[in-house]
């Protein structure tokens, strides 16, 4: 079965056209429309398009997730996906499957690019969304690009969400899905020696957790691609506060996510919830990407340093003018699309 996102409504299409048109204006005019002066924090300067986009969101009074019910927040996540989603390439096949999980079936979506011979490299992808929102559809464009540009099969995992399923449900599903892909590598046409994990935000967290949980397995991830990962759920790093208001991902929203995901404060220090508190020795090689105006910036950078200090090969990149979630807006932000391609290139190199 060919799978993918449902078609957006006419209203959503019009919003997307308007947003892309406004964001295509010259940088100098973008600054004027956004308030006239560059925004600087912690030695970083906000990209003019991002500054304008954030100003448009404020004018439109788009609600933050923490002001919404869980159900409404999930709908908003799907709407946000369409507004500035990148154009996607044609693939050989996209299909939905069900994997066995610790508490029932786990939905997954498998993307295979054109002209890829079996056994092929693969990446198990975990979506972002604070463990509360997001799913296969919200990250469908990113997964299509990842498969096409990194030249690998991508398996996106629809792990259980909170608050219906609190920690460690997401981590348990992520681990089960990775192990299932390993066990069924032959049937999936995958080279078991070249299976990576990847994810953004909460998905970066799960990628790091799977990378650590499988250290005793016969087959473990060959590589981990961590895209602005949330690795400290105690929210203790300085950028949580210095960037916690006005840059899309709000500190209050993160607290809302954690209140839904964690069973109690003590879970925040559990290494399966917060890889920052884990012994990371023996973890697979990694590429860690952060954004200069992301509240998760400091913990992502610190985690990359921790991996390196433990002898793990790691490459760290900060996209200085970007914000949390920029890869999903790379259809409208000219500097976000090359940033996404940097990530896919890192993955392709690691799996070649």
Automatic annotation (TrEMBL):
Database matches in InterPro entries: AB_hydrolase_3 (IPR013094), AB_hydrolase_fold (IPR029058), GDXG_lipolytic_enzyme (IPR050300)
Keyword Nucleotide-binding tagged: no
GO terms, molecular function: hydrolase activity
Residue span, Alpha/beta hydrolase fold-3 domain: 124-326
Keywords: Hydrolase
Family designation: Belongs to the 'GDXG' lipolytic enzyme family.
Protein name: Acetyl esterase
Organism whose genome encodes this protein: Nannocystis exedens
